[in-house]
Amino acid sequence: MSRPQCPRCLRPTTHCLCALIPSLDSRTRVLLLQHPSEVSHALNTARLAALGLNNAQLVVGEVFDDLATLLNPPGYQARLLFPADDAQPLQVYAPGDLPLLLVVPDGTWRKARKLLHLNPLLAALPRVALADGGISRYRLRKAPGPGALSTVEAIVQALQVMEAPASFELLLKPFEALIEGQIAAMGEEVFQRNHGDGRQE
């Protein structure tokens, strides 16, 4: 029998994260396009980001029929947060800048690339990228390379740059609680063996 689930954060009710999820305003609008395989993932960080940001929307799918509408909210210019040789580095808003619609694909790198392949409008968007060297707090999954961040971490880093000096660190509170809960569930010994840095305490 499945455990009772919080309808908002989709966590088991005994591990509900809603009390830790902030309600943050941002000038930037965030559109999260989530691959269906991520919805039931225990660490669904895109959902945490969407719940914690008032100006955010989470849409699940592989092909988005209403993508043209989603990408063109009045008063915003759309940019895709995804690496590319011609991706522009994110920078702080200048006076008079139109706010960005920051489009964030959510899934493994392979699934995210598939979303771009299946949705040509998405692939055609101008791209922006985070600065190199971001360190993930996601200690449960081997990062595919330096600078690989979870979805919520990437969004926080992007907003911290664009909307400085505003802080979006509170978005990471439920994420960190989620990580701690997963480590506690597996036991410290198993965590150190599989995910630790190899040092014995």
- What is the CATH domain class? Alpha Beta
Average pLDDT score: 86
The string of secondary-structure elements, in order, is EHEHEEEHHEHHH
DSSP helical segment count:
7
GO molecular function: tRNA-uridine aminocarboxypropyltransferase activity
Domain DTW: 2-187
Organism: Pseudomonas haemolytica
GO biological process, one term: tRNA processing
What does this structure look like?
This protein has 201 residues and is of the alpha/beta class. It has a single domain, classed as 3-Layer(aba) Sandwich (Alpha/beta knot). It has helices at residues 45-52, 67-70, 109-118, 120-123, 151-162, 172-186, 188-195; strands spanning 29-34, 56-60, 77-81, 88-89, 100-106, 127-129. Strands 2-1-5-3-6-4 form a 6-stranded parallel beta sheet. Strand 1, helix 1 and strand 2 form a beta-alpha-beta unit. Helix 1 (45-52) runs parallel beside helix 5. The protein is globular. 31% of the residues are buried.
Entry summary:
The protein has helices at about 45-50, 65-70, 110-120, 120-125, 150-160, 170-185, 190-195; strands at about 30-35, 55-60, 75-80, 90, 100-105, 125-130. The protein is an alpha/beta fold.
Task: Reconstruct the topology from this structure.
Blueprint lengths: L28 E6 L10 H8 L3 E5 L6 H4 L6 E5 L6 E2 L10 E7 L2 H10 L1 H4 L3 E3 L21 H12 L9 H15 L1 H8 L6
Parallel strand pairs: 1-2, 1-5, 3-5, 3-6, 4-6
Keywords: S-adenosyl-L-methionine, Transferase, tRNA processing
GO molecular function, one term: tRNA-uridine aminocarboxypropyltransferase activity
EC number: 2.5.1.25
